Amino acid sequence: MSAYTFIDIPFNFRHTCWFCGEPASHSFDFPKNPNNLRFLEHPPMSIPACSECAIVNVASDVSSIWAVRDHVKRSIMDKYADHLAIGQNWTEEELKESEFSGALLGGFGESAWTMYLIAKDRLSYQGWTVSIDSMLVEWEDESYGFEFDGVRYMSLNTCLEHLIKALRLDAQLLPSLIDILGPERLDYALRIAKLNKAITTFQREKILDEIRQQQDDKQDIAQQAKFAGDFSQVEEVAVGDGVATVESIQWALKNRITTLDHLCREEDAFFDEFAHLGGPQCYMNYYGLQLYFEARQNLAWIAENDPNIEWW
Length: 312
Description:
The chain is mainly alpha-helical. The chain has helices spanning 51-54, 65-79, 81-89, 92-97, 103-124, 156-167, 173-181, 186-195, 201-227, 246-254, 260-265, 267-273, 279-295, 299-305; strands at 26-30, 45-49, 131-132, 135-136, 146-148, 151-153, 237-239, 242-244. The chain has a two-stranded antiparallel ribbon. A two-stranded antiparallel ribbon has the order 3-4. It has a two-stranded antiparallel ribbon with strand order 5-6. Helix 3 (81-89) crosses helix 6, helix 7 (173-181) packs antiparallel against helix 8 and helix 7 (173-181) packs parallel to helix 9.
């Protein structure tokens, strides 16, 4: 019998583990020890859980059910690291076309992709909104984590730790590449790391120096083009329900308009420039550019979503 009040469970989730989405036959009482109630940021609660998630141990001073979820996700990730690695080493088509045979390898070829999908879905599952007796249990950020290749991890560091362990990568190369390239280029960094698994310190530093030089060269080229007024490589950006078109962004760059306030002051000049598009289209272009500049006020959004970051 559960020690605390169960969280509210939507009808379509009445037999579902809140942590991973598998069928629930147990409950996770939080905190498991009533002596730890003093650490909680919200009321104690019972959560529907599968047999695996229900037995995960967490530290006595964990303060929220979302921190518990992170512990449970890490447990899933560690336990099924080999399954998750299948998606990094193979595609579904490659497994179907493979020539695995025999009792062991034949079975792997047939079931590997399913194993990967199950592990990926369990790790990415986010559960439903937590409430008790219709009272919402507040949490500051429901859009937690870092997503890569269809899998949502607790953080970027957790993702890197998993990839290094599952793919047997050099422990220092991948994080160092991300420091240079940024999280948005993890796919490229991972390709480099896969090609250089067993390397010496000298080899690692040589690779990193080459990547740094590539980045410096890229920035130099961009700066030269910017100085020359050549913005031909600018890309359009979809933001919310609008689109900042290539032409709109190029116009802003050529006129050295880099903020939302500056754009608003130049509204008449924008509509004069694009009047040939007709009223509705001209307005949509301006609206998309507004949304773009508004989004660019957030440095995290710029780092993760702006393909034109080097031009500003």
